[in-house]
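Two proteins follow. First one:
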Amino acid sequence: MKNSRIVTAIASGALAMTVMAGDAVAKTPLYKDSKQPIEKRVADLVGRMTVDEKIGQLLCPMGWEMYTRTGDKVAPSDTFMVLSKRDMAPGSYWAVLRADPWTQRTLDNGLDPRMSAEALNALQKEAVENTRLGIPILFAEECAHGHMAIGSTVMPTGLSMASTFDPELIRRAGEVVATETRTKGAHQAYGPVIDLARDPRWSRMEEGFGEDPMLSGAFGAAYVNGLQGDSVGTPGRTVATLKHFAAYGIPQGGLNGAPAEVGKIALFNEHLRPFRDAVGAGTVMTSYNTIDGVPTTGDKELIDGTLRDRFGFDGAVTSDLFSIDGITGAGTAGDLAEAAAQALLAGVDIDLGANAYRKGLPEALRRGLVTEADIDRAVANVLRLKMRLGLF
């Protein structure tokens, strides 16, 4: 009897110690341990997430209404607080710091560099400290030729950069842009634009490096190196975003976003060459156009088959603004659920605009157009990027 009590006591103590050890492990989940391999951390985090939380990580809404400014004081806006409390809280925001006539942010109501850092820190603090899993936000900004925000250095346009014929100068310009963007608190730089501009009527000719594929590839790679450093996650640098995949600079009639009429040889030897040469960028953005009737944002052969498999791209793919929604107008999807499914299965990880995936993916999942494993793949690409950047 005495021995049985001892055994029982020992067993109870062991159980208590096990529970305590389990509590300790639970307080420091594997995905937050930066010493662990990134792939293990990503798998651990994905395994803890609900479907809504997963879809939330694929959303990137417009961001300039996510803060309020009173005098020199900044704080998260009511809009941001509502979004951050949702089960489908966005994993990214675009252009929180942007100031131009569209955003109606000016010197009077926009943010200087100091206030920019304070604003993004406040938003990030809310996401990390007051959400269930504490997943940090990825902040993306427009940086084709300088950070499009107050207090930034405006670099020459892409055409002017290309006229220097000096890739090293462009690399140094990219380094300045990265430093200014990252010190304000943002992580992802939308740029460089490496569309080949072959139609002078096209309204965005000045953004890219001109019409030559070799020059565009060389300058694109140089600018990417300036923005990123030697690899994604270089301290003090951003992650670059190649724009726009693909053949965006040859629209019918010179009308922005119109279909591109291009054969396979010209597509691969010319229009895709700059993307192959600059494929070390951490992210790539799709374009609005169609090629041979297929929306580029929903073209699995183009994104997964060419960009990932043939070119070796290992980052995250983002849509252009509302370009997933636009698939419904191209005739290849009957509604938003089909458009979202088409983009996801093609390899698009982030929905810029956040409408199609937020509304369409849950319905696509219910209808069997996609599986949770398809969503997991995209989520893993987003989380991997955040971990490579050191955001956790």
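Second one, unrelated to the first:
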Amino acid sequence: MTDSSKPSIAIVAHFAYGAMTGGVTGHIGGVERQTSLTARWLTEQGYRVSLITWDEGQQDGDVVDGVRLIKMCRQDAGLPGLRFFHPRWSSLNQALARADADVYYQNCAEYVTGQVAMWCKRHQKRFVYTIANDPDVDPNLPDMHTVRERVLYRYGLRHADDIVVQTQTQRQTLRNGFGLDSTVIPMPCPDLLEAGESLPDAPDPQKQSILWIARLCKQKRPDRYLDLATACPEFQFDLVGPYGDDAYCSEVITRARTIPNVKVWGGIERAKVGELYRDAACLCSTSDFEGFPNTFLEAWSLGIPLVTTFDPDGLVASKNLGRTAADVDTLAGGLREMLGSADAWLKASRNARSYYENNHTVEAVLPRFEAVFFDSPTPTHAAAGKVLHA
């Protein structure tokens, strides 16, 4: 039940319609799932919550689980070259106004960060931004390829009233590169361990797989995962993730289908995800960089350890949540070491579950976001982003 005495919030998440409504099409990644989780939780606490997304055929103002859906234009609307301004930017401004919220929140580095910050500054609204990925705090902004993107994103960073990061590494990099302070809050993840369900015993590598689950793109390095499968013919490997239409993805899929111990799943419904985790001996990540993958949290909630080339804040190594690696050879060594010892696997499994319970449950995380959203004074934008130095 919405409490009219509480402030309201609008969450800007262009691609979150599918995650919010349970759809299986479109891009539904960790950010979209966390966004919809946050929206529902805030509604349950009595806040009036709006979610601003692309038009995917919904009625403007539809309500899902208490969250009001406000649509912009369709993603493909408008003429190439002009659509950036109209209808994309113009419909975003109209949606922000229709939301009529006290606080506006956006996650992910993009030109939209600057657009939302600009509207909030003009209308004296509070703007909170969350870093989603390590390159987002790199002053060179390596994932942004146009001047327009970089200029608008930097504007958004510097005019956010609060910035949330996922790791201490991101906080320090943002401080060093942009002179901006931030608040470290881990991301929330629903517990996949069902009531009464026990943590797994040591796995049987002959029956259980090495699970890889992500978008099939260069950042995630599925090609490295296939190299690992080739180097470890004694294990089974499950490659899970939606296909892109680029040459890199096509090459990965074509190659994966030629490797006998690799099963290619493609994109799957959320209902199937839990089954795949439970059939896994461990989760494998082969990315060059990340933010804090939602898949890590899902696996840890079930007591499934990692073998990974990416280790946020050194947590996997320091807290024994699995094995870390630098390349295919060390990935293979880590797999064989952990799966070759029931004791080693069980220690990592129990540590993973304990770390999840203490740091990433909805109950542990979302009250901290609530405090950032609503416990600060009305913004003046005079000290936006908490600039530490020029």
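SUMMARY FIELD: The CA atoms of residues 188 and 365 lie 6 Å apart. The chain has two domains: 8-188+363-374, 209-360.
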